[in-house]
Amino acid sequence: MKNYIDLSDIKDLQALLTEASELKKAHAALEIGKGKTLGMLFFNPSLRTRLSTEKAAKLLGMDVLVMNAGSDGWALEFEDGAIMNSNKAEHIKEAAAVLSQYCDIIAVRAFPELKDRKEDEAENILNSFKNYASVPVVNLESATGHPLQALTDALTIQELKKKDKPKVVLTWAPHPKALPQSVPNSFTKMMQKMEFDFVITNPEGYDLNPEITKNTRVVHNQDEALKDADFVYVKNWSSYEDYGQKLSEDKSWMISQEKLKATNNARVMHCLPVRRNMVIADDVLDSSSSAVILQAKNRTFAAQAVLKEILEETANASELGKNA
Amino acid sequence: MKNYIDLSDIKDLQALLTEASELKKAHAALEIGKGKTLGMLFFNPSLRTRLSTEKAAKLLGMDVLVMNAGSDGWALEFEDGAIMNSNKAEHIKEAAAVLSQYCDIIAVRAFPELKDRKEDEAENILNSFKNYASVPVVNLESATGHPLQALTDALTIQELKKKDKPKVVLTWAPHPKALPQSVPNSFTKMMQKMEFDFVITNPEGYDLNPEITKNTRVVHNQDEALKDADFVYVKNWSSYEDYGQKLSEDKSWMISQEKLKATNNARVMHCLPVRRNMVIADDVLDSSSSAVILQAKNRTFAAQAVLKEILEETANASELGKNA
Amino acid sequence: MKNYIDLSDIKDLQALLTEASELKKAHAALEIGKGKTLGMLFFNPSLRTRLSTEKAAKLLGMDVLVMNAGSDGWALEFEDGAIMNSNKAEHIKEAAAVLSQYCDIIAVRAFPELKDRKEDEAENILNSFKNYASVPVVNLESATGHPLQALTDALTIQELKKKDKPKVVLTWAPHPKALPQSVPNSFTKMMQKMEFDFVITNPEGYDLNPEITKNTRVVHNQDEALKDADFVYVKNWSSYEDYGQKLSEDKSWMISQEKLKATNNARVMHCLPVRRNMVIADDVLDSSSSAVILQAKNRTFAAQAVLKEILEETANASELGKNA
């Protein structure tokens, strides 16, 4: 693949999942990335994504440069033609071009503001890097998507599933803050690719972007949705219709063992961090129902598969084009 | 060793010191840690500990992931059964389990609050990582101990001593701030293991925890204690009895060449950073009496010996148990 | 070379530039730095300098330790004989000596305050490290110089020049803030070494330190200076005479295609970050006139050549002196 910005960048999902599985089995230090550099640029904090992606890169032999745009006070100008006499010291055109001189792959994290839907959906930061960088760009969670998480989730379900076409339920859960829709968006797109029996359940007012959910069944009755589920993916998100708002904190949507009784002994998933006894109850997280730690483990190998495929494609392109 | 949380984790101190000495002589890049990751998690700032441990890990071939829990705003919940609706986004149970997926060893620094003795002595953060992590845990200075510093100190004395059983004096010195007891605690435990002629001297009200000092002689007259000393270990600490308080700033306890006259040409030690002309005078630090830079140098090799022993034991365990 | 603190540390400039060119052509992972550590200490923020130097070190096989003196709140005492009872916890004597135990090369960035000319010119931080460190010291931009940038600039001009002795013009340009003179100072010294046809142009009141400009022609009419230029190096700086002040924001000094008409199809250079349409116009930066991205790329190889030469000299010295 050339970039990994959205699930549409995946050419062959089964091949990518197989690669990730094999990297996990081997868990070895490889040499393919020797002398290559991954630059990770964070406009927002990150723990798991940083650690797993850094580890993935190093297992491939790559060097890693980490930049915190926030704490380094690196205010970027994105407007074309701007007269830069304010506090913004560098234009994205130079920033992306310069990072491309030091990095063989650039990975970017940039959350939504959750104020203006159009602005968030423009994915200004990520798309600017894609436009102005001369090297591949990887999405470490953007305003509207988190495709590395979705790949981990697919890998985890593939590992755990006991039937070809399991029933997978994505359920909204309460949370004290208004959160982005990036994780449920990407999970939905991934489930559509996997062709599982996929259902989304959320309170009214919390329907995700219909251009993403498309034909996926959306049910407003959680109990009905959970029936016979093999996997329950739990996540809070803010409203898409009433954009970025927290409409309710309905505690009855929290996932507990009581809720799981109607399922087919479902495995419970969450991207973490998870608020215990708010989003998911202790009796689930501390039981064998939980798959959340496995998901976290698999992030390393999902990232490694993506970085490896990008490195391979870049090597091929440079050999073919003699433009090394 | 399985963990390195307290000096009691050391199985064979002489073997560990010999290993550290040999690593120092070789000062070479090893391969034993290739493909392995050390995660260092700081709840408090660190310079020397971070640099020396990071260098030690890299000399073993390990990759290093550094996390600043403070600046990354990673507020952890430690209470069992908590309903997580406050500002704490992740429970220690997930945090420790997730880090265990990315790291082969987790090293943690967490200072005391110096407000509530019972709370500090519970070593909540460090023990939670020990309980919930599935990989070995190393103490990078906790509320009540700094065992990597103590190992460095033992290595330094072993290098410099001119007789089998030197007289070692740990002396309190004045400081403008109230400091933890972690360094003197661990140094005391280490000296007890080394079976040197060990004396502690401090003003009244500054006696360390009697469960740690045990039978060690504690003298409240500094001049008397210093007589014929071969090593003088200087350190400020706050009161244990009047917990966490600074009772005095008695300048007469500062170590100077004048004070050293009564000693047996003693070498002066300090864990650094040191306040010049407050804790130790220029005429000592700028003279050949000082061993503080050697102590700092030895931190790399003490950490390297600990990490190497943990890696070896983990490799053995996984081979025996076939649970790789 | 022993240190790289100022251009005067360069023994053979042509050899160094040739080395940088060859490292650029090879762009390979080397082993010379294996088991060696570069410590980078930042008293001020850095993006490009950090990334390019870190990449350079890693391409040589070195490990890199990064320390942010600012954010880690590491307040250093520089005064000799100080009684350290204030907020400064460590003296530069210990700091430099300790870092020398963990690092084989120490690189330091410390900007000027732009308040007191004498104080800035004393280069207190950098010189203290030079005095008290026992390993080589590299300047990552100090109060009065930026020699790694100047080496990059020389490398870039050497790559692009179409005649032996091109005309190079360093021109002041407007900027909303008062900036240091470190980049124009070092560029001036470098151009004097290269023996090009070198001219400086700036508004009256902005003449650089005459001890640096020496016999270099300084012209206060920009149009006159630009005539037939092969290279135009654009940079803002604050006044040296009226030390550290911003005297004007004269927009007519901005470099645009209109301004370049009088040149010999000049290539335009800037150390970045650059304020678009304030310092240099879009029509230059977005055209083939611009060489700024090439300059940024070359920073890696300039740093790599410097680090490599220091490593080689250290290895030779230690072999000769048997003081390894």
From TrEMBL, chains A, B, C:
InterPro entries: ArgF'-like, Asp/Orn_carbamoyltranf_P-bd, Asp/Orn_carbamoylTrfase, Asp/Orn_carbamoylTrfase_sf, Asp_carbamoyltransf_Asp/Orn-bd. It catalyses: N(2)-succinyl-L-ornithine + carbamoyl phosphate = N(2)-succinyl-L-citrulline + phosphate + H(+). Carbamoyl phosphate binds at residues 46-49, 74, 109, 146-149, 271-272, 299. Pfam families: OTCace, OTCace_N. Its EC number is 2.1.3.11. Residues 182-308 form the Aspartate/ornithine carbamoyltransferase Asp/Orn-binding domain. It comes from the Bacteria. Signal peptide: none annotated. Catalyzes the transfer of the carbamoyl group from carbamoyl phosphate to the delta-amino group of N(2)-succinyl-L-ornithine to produce N(2)-succinyl-L-citrulline. Is essential for arginine biosynthesis. NCBIfam families: PRK04523.1. This is N-succinylornithine carbamoyltransferase. It comes from Salegentibacter echinorum. The gene is argF'.
